[in-house]
Specification:
Helices cover about 40% and strands about 20% of the residues. It is of the alpha+beta class and about 425 residues long. Among the domains are: about 210 residues, no CATH class; about 55 residues, no CATH class. The strands form five sheets. The protein has an eight-stranded mixed β-sheet with strand order 6-5-7-8-14-16-4-17. Strands 9, 11, 12 and 13 form a four-stranded antiparallel β-sheet that branches. It has a two-stranded antiparallel ribbon with strand order 1-2. Helix 16 crosses helix 18. It starts with a helix and ends in a 13-residue tail after the last helix. The relative contact order is 0.17. Bound molecules: flavin-adenine dinucleotide and iron/sulfur cluster (2 copies). Flavin-adenine dinucleotide binds next to helix 6, strand 5, strand 7 and strand 14.
Length: about 425
């Protein structure tokens, strides 16, 4: 039997792990945690499985996205996706602000949606209770559930596995995910009226790339969690801005202990970022162009310590998103101060450089006959042209070096196991 289209997306390194295909066809496609390649779909190799994969491809943003219907009016929009209005702010609720990754704006907005009846539930991800090294898609209907998800998880997560539960109700749901998760949801909604009818708002977190499970294991080693211990909690961010990376574990004699904590910058810079998947390095949307609202860190005014009171950078992408942020401000759920629309570039210098390199990386891939994402209506060449000559060259030569080093021409095969 020939390979199905979803398996082919995985094999060609185009899958982002959003979980949309599995969420649409849970009887035939399931997500598995591969320690090296990420959380990826495995399709039943039956005629029904192949049929499901063919339809699921229509909602897969890993393969392709269409930017032509987005309102890209000026250079700021063309660089970051539609930017209607920007603010710097935080959740009014002090616990949400403290537990949140930056200023708890995402959880604060989600809590406001539940409190006002704007939504009956919020689809997001949270650490798995029985194994916090891994994540699960959940729908929360109260603050306690939302707080389980507060704080970014720099690990693989597939929030679109919640699609069956989103569709099963007749009440609106707010969806939270990474830019690629929101992009797939957006695509799937175009083909699924019931799904579209049940989504009242989408919120994306900024994302430089999701590390794999091997990265989490390396982090646990650095945090000096014994190999024989059972991890009972693992935080990558939050409890202040930007927060410490810290685990809690139980030793075989039943004693529960907090591990040492390391600053977020050290954990990301020294361990996690090197384990981002190749798909993330050719990702053209790190800030959630397809969402109603996007939230990231205002790094242009960084915290002085590791656990300062947090602040978030909030971007309204649609009129619906802008109205919701303004209502949350009026409803005293969110404290926010308007900022100039060009604040994103000042806040995210690393993403400016990454955005510029994408055209070069993709051209380098295609020159070797390797697949790259197909994003129509997105003009990557002008962004690449703004790079200094050395960086232009690096984007191409660095890609070829990585293709050789990581043998990226090999088909990705998913190991269906977690140790
Ligand atoms: C892998 C990764 C890379 C990131 N890279 C950047 C970056 O380059 N620049 C930047 O400014 N910000 C980045 N962030 C986002 C940043 O860490 C904060 O999430 C953002 O500022 C929102 O903070 P908050 O306090 O408002 O959110 P919170 O109130 O803490 O809420 C965070 C929400 O995100 C959801 N979430 C957490 N982890 C994941 C995940 N892995 N997949 C899907 N949903 C998730 C949670 O369920 C929760 O609902 C990244 C986050 C992740 C997970
Ligand atoms: S990107 Fe999402 S929809 Fe596409 S194959 Fe991967 S998990 Fe499935
Ligand atoms: S970098 Fe892009 S593809 Fe990778 S997890 Fe983030 S949004 Fe998804």
């Amino acid at each position: 039997m020939r390979s199905d289209p979803i398996t082919s997306i995985v094999q060609k390194n185009l899958c982002t792990g959003c979980g949309g295909c599995a969420g649409q066809f849970p009887d035939f496609i399931r997500m598995v945690d591969d320690p090296e390649n990420g959380r990826r779909p495995v399709v039943a190799q039956t005629p029904e499985g192949h049929k499901a994969a063919k339809v699921a491809l229509e909602g897969c943003a890993g393969a392709a996205t269409d930017w032509s219907k987005l309102a890209l009016i000026d250079d700021i929009d063309r660089m970051w996706g539609p930017v209607l209005k920007t603010w710097e702010g935080w959740a009014q609720d002090t616990e949400i602000r403290h537990r949140g990754s930056s200023g708890g704006a995402v959880t604060g907005l989600a809590a406001y949606a539940l409190d006002t009846g704007f939504a009956a539930g919020v689809a997001h991800i949270a650490a798995r209770t029985e194994d916090p090294r891994l994540n699960e898609a959940v729908i929360s209907r109260d603050h306690a559930g939302l707080l389980r998800g507060a704080g970014s998880r720099y690990a693989q997560a597939s929030p679109l596995e919640a699609i069956p539960e989103i569709k099963s109700g007749d009440a609106p749901i707010v969806f939270i995910g990474k830019p690629c998760d929101v992009a797939s949801l957006n695509k799937a909604m175009r083909h699924d009226a019931q799904l579209a009818a049940n989504i009242s708002l989408t919120i994306a977190i900024f994302c430089a790339g999701a590390p794999n499970l091997n990265a989490t294991e390396q982090l646990l080693d650095t945090l000096e969690v014994p190999k024989t211990a059972k991890v009972t909690d693992l935080r990558y961010r939050g409890n202040g801005w930007p927060g410490l990376m810290q685990a809690r574990f139980q030793t075989p004699d039943g004693t529960e202990t907090d591990s040492k904590g390391i600053p977020y910058g050290e954990g990301w810079g020294r361990i996690l970022q090197a384990h981002r998947r190749w798909r993330c390095r050719v990702c053209a949307d790190h800030t959630g162009a397809f969402a109603d609202i996007s939230v990231g860190d205002p790094w242009h005014a960084p915290p002085k310590g590791n656990t300062d009171a947090g602040r978030s950078l909030i971007v309204a992408r649609t009129a619906r998103g802008q109205a919701f942020v303004e209502a949350a401000m009026q409803g005293r759920a969110l404290v926010a101060i308007a900022r100039d629309r060009d604040v994103i570039a000042r806040a995210q210098p690393n993403l400016v450089a990454t955005g510029g390199a994408i055209w070069g990386r993709r051209v380098a891939m295609r020159a070797l006959g390797l697949a790259a994402p197909q994003d129509t209506g997105l003009k990557l060449l002008p962004l690449w042209m703004t790079l200094p000559a050395k960086q232009k060259m690096q984007s191409v030569l660095g890609t070829w070096k990585r293709v050789l080093r990581d043998r990226l021409w090999r088909r990705v095969r998913i190991a269906d196991r977690v140790q």
